[in-house]
Amino acid sequence: MPRMLHAVIDWLRRGYPDGVPEADYIPLVALLRRRLTGEEVEQIAAEVLNSPAHRLDRTDIRVMITKVTDEMPSDTDVQRVLSRLDPPGWPE
Questions:
Q1: Rounded distance, CA 5 to CA 48, Å?
Q2: Which residues of the chain have pLDDT under 70?
Q3: How many other C-beta atoms are found inside a 10 Å radius of the C-beta of residue 62?
Q4: Is residue 92 a part of any domain in this protein?
Q5: Residue ranges making up the domain that contains 71
Q6: 22: which of 76, 82, 83, 90 is 20 to 30 A away, CA to CA?
Q7: pLDDT reported for residue 89
Q8: Helix/strand/coil for 18
Q9: How many domains does the chain have?
């Protein structure tokens, strides 16, 4: 995995130390899509969700990403995700 993706995963883990709550999946992917390619988002989602607490496979992740294009998150959802992540901490 490219170094940049490792940095993004570390950034997400700092913002969500207990894992990403299901309610934040769609807004989080929507925010990531603004900065990353679809393939990078899939790789990150797979890495973050690849834990015993999450029972999603690659198909589930693709469905979530596809949902973003059809169901954009509300402003409240976006704010909730942004409040968890440290924007100045975005890896460069």
A1: 11
A2: 1, 34-36, 48-74, 77-78, 81-82, 85-92
A3: 14
A4: no
A5: 3-83
A6: 90
A7: 61
A8: coil
A9: 1
